[in-house]
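@channel sequence for tomorrow's demo:
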Amino acid sequence: MRKEPVALPDGFIPSFPSETLEESANITPPSSDCGTIREKAHRLLQILKDDTCAPHAVSGWHTLAETLVAATLIGAFFVTIFEVNAVCLRYIDASKECVAAVQGVQDRIEGLRNLAFSDLISPSYMMISQPTPAPSGPRPVSLVYPSNSSDLAARVTEEVTVSAYPSGTPLPGGTPNITYTRPPGAAVYPSASPATSPDFSGITMVKVKVKYTWTATLGGRPRSEETETLVAAGTKK
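structure tokens (generated this afternoon):
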């Protein structure tokens, strides 16, 4: 049900309680706080902006530092890998040299053992290049050439010592012996010590010693390998 507005008589002045008038007098106009509220809002927005942007800046610096550390670690890792690989290859080369040295002295011993006894004790035979048998055949044993075709055999210094056995024959203190020294090379003439040929007449057994000396690839250290055997005069079967 709709109520009609009540008309007030002319000259009507409303009256309020004294308490209400006092409270109304104490109210501060809202316009006086507008500046303070605006300043507080601006400060709040500035704080929110700083809190929002600061983590991104710190995160960017962290990302750059982490990238540099990671790149350094990766570089150090690859450098270490390459160095370890190079060391392993040098160790492999050193192992190959040792195996080639053992094989080289064994091949030389076998070649000398298969010589006729008269040729073994003859410096004139041992120190010159022997002709290849015609029409074809293996190269005869000679100290002019390496003991085999390996690379190491051509770059070692080879010593071959032939001495009467047992020591003291035929006279005490007068055991005949001769040492041939072959320098590195594919085809070189060895030297003999002593220069004069010893007298092996009457000797029926000699001791043959073969020694390799060379500079190792790993560390440049001097290395050596040697072996020896006894060879008696007789007929080759």
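heads up for whoever presents: Confidence is low (pLDDT under 50) at residues 20-25.
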